[in-house]
Amino acid sequence: MILEMKKVSLICLASAKMQALEDLRELGVMHVELDGRNDSPDFSKSEHFLATANRAIAAVSERKGKASAAFSAMSGEDLVRKIEEITETNSNLAKKLDSLVKDWEKVSPWGEFSSDLIDELRTKGVYIYLCAGNKNTLLLLPARTSYRIISEDKGKLYFTVISDVEQEKSALPTVTVPMGRSLRELDNEINDCKYAIQNNEEALDALSCEIKKLKIQQIRAKETIEFIANRDSMKSAVEISYITGFVPTHLVEKIRVASKKNAWGLLITDPHHDDKVPTLIRVPKIFQISKPIFDVIGIAPSYHEVDISVCFLLFLSLFVGILIGDAGYALLLFLILGVAKFAIRSEKARLPINLLFVMGSSIFIWGFLTGSWFGIEIEKLPAFLHPNPWFKSEDNIRYCCFMIAALHLSIAHIWIGVLKINRIGQVVGQLGWVLFIWGNFFLASSLVAGRSFPHFAFYFFIIGFVMMLFSINYREIGEICGFPFAVLSSFVDLLSYIRLFAVGLSGLYVAENFNKMAEGTFSLPYVGLLLGIIIIIFGHSLNIMLGALAVLVHGIRLNTLEFSGQLGLHWSGFLYKPFKKMEIDEDLK
Known about the structure:
By secondary structure, this protein is α+β, with helices and mostly antiparallel strands. It is built from 19 helices and 8 strands.
């Protein structure tokens, strides 16, 4: 159920607006209507600090080290800046080390020599050039020169050319060598650089022990950004300031009490149809396991739409069972979830684990009915694991998919009829849609599921179509033009539920074929059994991942497109997020 909201404008003295914001945040009931003005220096500074905190956490989160008393005494803000300083220093040191190594590689073929001595000899008329080439290069040296080979590497000679006259550089195969430091000096600088990097790495290892303090600082940084965004959204007029937002109706009394205590002015009205009102959904406790679904796919109905959480959960569970449909996979899932239930005590993990138990139960029931156990052929299964006779027929399973489709889509139109119960034309029109959908069911069953088309289904189409005409708003040209397409779409939507059968069957074939591949290796001596086990593990792991992907692609789609399309639900909303202090997980305290 989507809870009713009130639009609230809070008015205070301009001189007291900062305290008013603090008190409003402490109250934690108003979803503030932000105006998007985030150009203040404070906002930019806070965003920059949050980015720094994110980088700091990323830099140490995978490390392990011993705690340092010096770091433990630092505040979260100082820790963030310390990690930023160390990582930046290490980045510069890494660049310097790379440059030093390149210089060392250029100098090392020449060994220890003095660039100062080369310059001194030049002043005395002795010219020395550092050159490189092959043996043929030596034959091409100019007259009045001599050479001395210093080193050789893979056929490449490094040699000095000595002359009593200055030579044209173009006449010699000279190489560029860093002349400022000797090989020993480069070695010392490289070692110093490595030592400094190692010390910084050890410091980052020690800083990883302060990860809780860093995450708390990250939360505080987000709070600061939110506070500034709300502050910047406050409007002022002469000596007063005001801020507007939305408060659930059942929490309005809290802000009324606070307004009397803090001498605020309040203007409370019903939201206008054009207002961007947040959505707050209250789901019965037994169905709260649906929340992780919407957290994963990141969608929400708008305030003026309807909440389908319970229906979404029930039908998605059914779709998951058909799409994956292997009782053996369900048993594996139960085993993993059983371990997770005891190993993970976090409250955040409770709902996802319970949701997966429900999904696993659906998979197990469908797999048991169809006799699907790790893709093992029915003939090789014990008799009590054989499929229910009705589910042996693929036509029956297609028929079942269309039955689910007709029921699912009918619920959408009945729902609309209930919402518009005071408009008799709409109620008649939606019942007409229900009749037409069941006509589509019989038609699809005759075309795809091997059933004969019953004579009475013609009346479903005729009577349903006539009734559907009552639901059209004849003042809207777009609705009139779109009606024929909606009629055709109703059949296409129902037919699309055949994907449940097709994907489920493909998963069964994948499992069976990997089993056969594994069986083919068992006859091989020595390695056959091991190879077969590897194939089975790989094949079924791949099949499970494909099944999970199918749930996201097909199971979610049938709810968010086909069903929601019939219901007129566009998922254009955003969730209610009150301006309040952010909660800190128990494991961070």
